[in-house]
UniProtKB/TrEMBL annotation:
Family affiliation: Belongs to the triosephosphate isomerase family.
Keyword Ion transport attached: no
Full protein name: Triosephosphate isomerase
Top-level taxon of the source organism: Bacteria
Originating organism: Micrococcus endophyticus
Pathway: Carbohydrate biosynthesis; gluconeogenesis; Carbohydrate degradation; glycolysis; D-glyceraldehyde 3-phosphate from glycerone phosphate: step 1/1
Designated gene of the protein: tpiA
Cited function: Involved in the gluconeogenesis. Catalyzes stereospecifically the conversion of dihydroxyacetone phosphate (DHAP) to D-glyceraldehyde-3-phosphate (G3P).
Length: 263
């Protein structure tokens, strides 16, 4: 539906609970070195990594010290700003570390930690309060897809995960469509499936917040993305990048995904 020219693709690496702060430095250095190859520019693509909380300071020091063109963010954050919330991490602390993004509503948090749409929306609001862009994850399970209810299900999940946000908030948000059956399984969605869902999500955001917000919204695909599948997936008109899990732990493979348009 919308023009795609204004949307800078975002290739985001979600490391999940992998790599300590020393390993993080090695991976980011290697990635930055691979991405500075002048013969293979990636100026028109934004690159971001999402290490564990404990790695963020080390990544910040490296990125700022060496002026690396790599953004970073957290994999989660508290819906609260401060106080007696043992084990939680405030968006204020993430902003102080130079984070640009915070993932909210990843299916692993929805499933393992029982997070629902209302909590995800509160976390998205907390990220925005602190100047971070939330990366709001949605996606259907296999049973829902097999029942043919995947579009309605995922659109409703997004709507619930954006409750209370204004059009201005949503304009600063990134959405990630991650079919649960494709995460960590090697089972990647077809490019047509990804396009169908991303277009439906964009259309719903347009109905809720206006065509301009929808046209500017970046919607990523996530689920077993590899350098071999990235070119077809990421050239779909409504797919504006990827949220990459396993393949983001391999600097060479992740750099190839960043250069999906040169494959
Ligand atoms: O956040 C990333 C997604 O869960 C995808 O993970 P994956 O690429 O290992 O399937």
């Amino acid at each position: 539906m919308a023009e795609t020219t204004a949307r800078v693709p975002l290739i985001a690496g979600n490391w999940k609970m992998n790599l300590d702060h020393r390993e993080a430095v090695t991976l980011v250095q290697r990635l930055a070195w691979l991405l500075t190859d002048a013969d293979h520019d990636h100026e028109d693509v934004e690159v971001a990594v999402f290490p564990p909380f404990t790695d963020l300071r080390a990544v910040q020091v490296l990125v700022t010290g060496d002026r690396l063109d790599v953004a970073y963010g957290a994999q989660d954050l508290s819906p609260e700003d401060s106080g007696a919330y043992t084990g939680d991490v405030s968006g204020a602390f993430l902003a102080a570390l130079g984070c640009r993004y915070a993932i909210v509503g990843h299916s692993e948090r929805r499933t393992i930690h029982g997070e629902d749409d209302a909590l995800v929306a509160r976390k998205a609001a907390a990220a925005l309060r602190h100047g971070l862009s939330p990366v709001v994850c949605v996606g259907e399970g296999l049973d829902v897809r097999q029942a043919g209810r995947h579009v309605a299900h995922t659109v409703a999940q997004l709507e619930g995960s954006l409750v209370g946000l204004s059009a201005e908030d949503v304009a600063r948000t990134v959405v990630a469509y991650e079919p649960v059956w494709a995460i960590g399984t090697g089972e990647v969605a077809g490019a047509g499936d990804a396009q169908e869902m991303c277009a439906a999500l964009r259309a719903r955001v347009g109905e809720l917040h206006g065509d301009d917000v929808a046209a500017g919204l970046r919607i990523l695909y996530g689920g077993s993305v590899k350098s071999t599948s990235a070119p077809e997936l990421l050239t779909q008109p409504d797919v504006d990048g990827a949220l990459v899990g396993g393949a983001s732990l391999d600097a060479e493979e992740f750099a190839k995904i960043v250069r999906f348009d040169q494959a």
